[in-house]
# Entry
Amino acid sequence: MTRQDILDELKKVLAPYTTNKELLAGVNEQTDLLQDLKINSANLVDIIIDAESKYNIEIDYDAAEKMTNVGSCIDVIQERLQQQ
Amino acid sequence: MDLNLTDADRTNQSRFYAKIITLAELQAIPYDLPLDRYVWLLWTVKEACYKYCKRLKPDLIFAPVKIPVTLTAVPQKSMAIEDAYPLQEHNITPENFFAGQALFADTTLFFRSLITNDFIATVVADEDEFKNVYWGIRDVADQSAESQSAAVRSLALERLKAFLPGQQFHFNKSHVGYPLVATETGETNIPLSLAHHGRFVSYCFKLG
# Structure
């Protein structure tokens, strides 16, 4: 999967947890999950779980703690996909 | 933490809670506390520790399983619980309160938590007596992010003014996102934490 492919799917993962749909539609790799998308920190584990299901990967917490913005999320997901 | 926004079935799945609590913490669960409530209790403790330590070390990253939490008995008198929430109105009893300590970034912190049917609220401090630590929890009708933010700021300001009348407080934000208490003469050294989730907003600050 290309980074764009991953991003397109990632937006669907993030959508239930942000009310800022306009910003979500126009996210870039620097978009911060908490500060920009206003995702509540209580939903971070939900996002990890949903990403695991979406991409059929496993994300341990050493990797998950890096997922603070869209770009780092794509990095983690891409790395996990390549390990398969 | 607004418990009405959590999914107990999902929380009780090992693939979910294993990202928040360790095996040792799982094995220490109180017999009379449902697993999902325990998981979210520890989540609030760990997040509070992270927010506390991030003020001192801005580069810290939130990694729940790396913040071990231990529950202890709740001291009879430890902090100004009475003003935090209308306890009698909501039939809050001592069994609703939890206490303990956590370790993060080489710092031991102590916590007090209140669990109701609707929310979990946690405060941390660097000493177990919680001297001069004040907190408040309220439910709000408008759950939009902007409204929650405004509501919790308003509540915190009102409480600060009650302790320090005559001061014109306002809040700024640090470069890493935590709130700063300021007056017209500049920033104060009053540590303040704000939180909002669903119907509930909460604040905590320490004076002196």
Summary: The first helix of chain B runs from residue 8 to 11.
